[in-house]
Write a structure and sequence with these properties.
ABC-type transporter activity, alpha/beta, Rossmann fold, six-stranded mixed beta sheet, 593 residues, four-stranded antiparallel beta sheet, membrane
């Protein structure tokens, strides 16, 4: 089955699941549409009765017309009301499914892929269509039911109306051109759509706002935003223009032929060879016939639009399932480390990049040790951390956790064994209590645990400076919210990384980049002391830094250069070896003399 049909099946099943009775009520409108299509027939019967002075036929036709109109309006109100409710329910359910699928992916590989981001952007751009997919399907059913009824009425009135039906059929066949134009336009504008949203976010971000004003970038940013929006919308506008031309040509041809046919039928009616009823029905059904072709074309466009967006939903579901299937993740990680981590011939590259960022990494990280990972910017330190924590999958080699491949461990069980603070940390704009407590959800509202984490992170003074202590709302975008400096946000992040009790692996990925070297050194001394206290269960503390003055207390220093391990040893051993580490250490030391 095609992805589009599979996706439509998902929409239908979702609608029935969220509200079976309301789904059924949506179809009530279809009955009203069929009755509405019969109106020209009733008018024709009334006219014929008037010509023949048949009051009974006139009364019956009038009663049928009034009754069908009343039923049509009532059924339409019931159906539309049900569709509006289903739109909200189905849309919310499918949006939640998209969010769940995206957030549940065990790694961050998809976030580093431009191709994935472009396809996801197409899905986001079509969320309105996807949310209203069930309503559009019901609308399509209504269009088909109404159109079939109109065609039956026209075909039984006079054979010449079949010519107009054929012209409408040609228009429906040509609709595939406009469908292809729209699809190509959506795909052509996907990257520009993502860029325009990013630039728009920059215009409303306080942090970006400071730089754009200081550096005088507002005008340049506006120009680039306009260019990005043009790149996004121009293909769609061009597709719309081409479709409009196609519609105009069909309109002219249809009504030109319709005028000839009506003239022909009028002549025959005056000659008495065509019944008055047939002529009246032809006049009454003429507008509906053009509407039928337009409605069918619109139904085709809607159906294909639904199909495209449903196919994108299926793509996301299949991607999520494939990622999950490729990671067996059935082995429970240990509660303590006996041997530690062993990295064997590890290599890794981001997304579709040709050049790997890590190559041939072989390391032994013994249990209960403090490891310092050093190197210049771009050496691959953070990439190695992401692999060890399972946020990315290696493109080659493996990572062993006490002789068990990390790829075989259950991510949902491995992640609670980890903790850490990162240079690119999140700024959770909650209360200070919760901004720290999210580091260990069971401790979210436990003040004692949060204060302990603040002590371990040497961040008590940050909270002491807040007007309401831990109850202070962080972030000026909120009522009574307080903004923090970069260093204060970073120390909140460090405390968040210290709140989880007894992690097997504590990662500190340049968490003090906004702090001075002396403060970083003092903090690392505290981390090292805490790590050795936790060494009883084999915990490993991994410090990532490019400041060599803070790593002397580490048990092992690993030096990375251009994605490769070039040296390992203690601080003293590496300085004595006069290699790459000693060279970089001396360069930094000169800056403090």
């Amino acid at each position: 089955m095609s992805p589009a049909l599979r996706g439509i099946g998902i929409v239908l099943r979702t609608a029935v699941r969220v509200s079976p009775w309301q789904s059924l009520l949506c179809l009530v409108e279809t009955v009203g549409k069929v009755l509405a299509a019969l109106a020209p027939l009733f008018v024709g019967i009334f006219a014929a009765g008037a010509v023949d002075r048949d009051l009974g036929r006139m009364a019956g036709a009038a009663l049928a017309l009034v009754g069908s109109t009343a039923v049509t309006n009532a059924f339409s109100a019931v159906g539309v009301n049900a569709q509006v409710k289903q739109h909200e329910l189905v849309g919310h359910t499918l949006d939640a499914e998209i969010a769940h699928r995206t957030a549940s992916l065990p790694t961050l590989d998809h976030l580093e892929s431009a191709r994935f981001q472009d396809r996801l952007q197409l899905l986001k751009d079509g969320e309105g269509v996807l949310g209203g997919a069930f309503s559009l399907l019901v609308h399509t059913i209504n269009v088909v039911a109404f159109s079939v009824a109109v065609l039956v009425v026209a075909a039984t009135a006079d054979w010449r109306l079949l010519i107009l039906i054929a012209i409408g059929g040609i228009r429906m066949i040509s609709a595939r051109w406009s469908v292809r134009w729209e699809r190509d336009a959506e795909e052509a504008g996907a990257a520009a759509s993502r860029l325009s949203r990013h630039l728009l976010d920059l215009t409303g971000s306080p942090a970006a706002g400071a730089e754009t004003r200081v550096f005088g970038q507002q005008q340049a940013l506006r120009r680039r935003l306009r260019a990005a929006v043009r790149g996004w919308r121009t293909p769609l506008v061009r597709a719309g223009d081409r479709t409009a031309v196609l519609d105009a040509v069909h309109l002219l041809v249809f009504y030109a032929v319709a005028a000839l046919i009506l003239g022909w039928m009028t002549r025959d009616a005056l000659a008495g060879t065509v019944p008055v009823q047939a002529l009246v029905v032809a006049v009454g059904v003429l507008g509906s016939l053009h509407g039928v072709s337009s409605s069918f074309v619109e139904a085709i466009r809607n159906f294909t639009r639904i199909g495209r967006n449903c196919a994108r939903l299926v793509w996301l579901i299949d991607y999520s399932d494939r990622v999950t299937a490729n990671q067996p993740a059935r082995t429970v990680p240990p509660t303590r480390l006996e041997h530690g981590l062993r990295i064997e011939n590890l290599s890794f590259g981001y997304g579709d990049a040709d050049r790997p960022v890590l190559t041939g990494i072989d390391l032994d990280l013994p249990a209960g040790t403090v490891i310092a990972l050093v190197g210049e910017n771009g050496a691959g330190k953070s990439s190695l951390v992401k692999l060890i924590t399972g946020l990315h999958r290696p493109t080659g080699g493996r990572i062993m956790i006490d002789n068990v491949d990390l790829a075989d461990l259950d991510p949902s069980a491995w992640r609670p064994r980890l903790s850490g603070a990162f240079q690119d940390h999140a700024r959770f704009e909650f209360t200070a209590q919760r901004s720290i407590g999210v580091g260990d959800l069971p401790a979210l509202d436990r003040e004692d645990r949060v204060r302990r984490a603040l002590h371990d992170a040497a961040a008590e003074d940050v909270i002491a400076a807040l007007p309401h202590g831990l109850a202070t709302q962080l972030g000026t975008a909120w009522a009574d919210g307080v903004d923090l400096s970069g260093g204060q946000w970073q120390r909140i992040a460090i405390a968040r990384g210290m709140i989880r009790p007894a992690p097997l692996l504590l990662v500190l990925d340049e968490p003090t980049s906004a702090l001075d070297a002396a403060t970083e050194h003092a903090l690392f001394e505290r981390y090292a002391a805490a790590a050795r206290t936790a060494a009883g269960h084999g915990a490993i503390t991994l410090l990532v830094t490019h400041r060599f003055s803070t790593v002397a207390a580490a048990d092992l220093v690993v030096v990375l250069d251009q994605g490769r391990v070039v040296e390992t040893g203690t601080h003293e051993e590496l300085v004595a070896a006069q290699g790459r580490y000693a060279e970089l250490y001396e360069l930094q030391a000169r800056g403090y003399r």
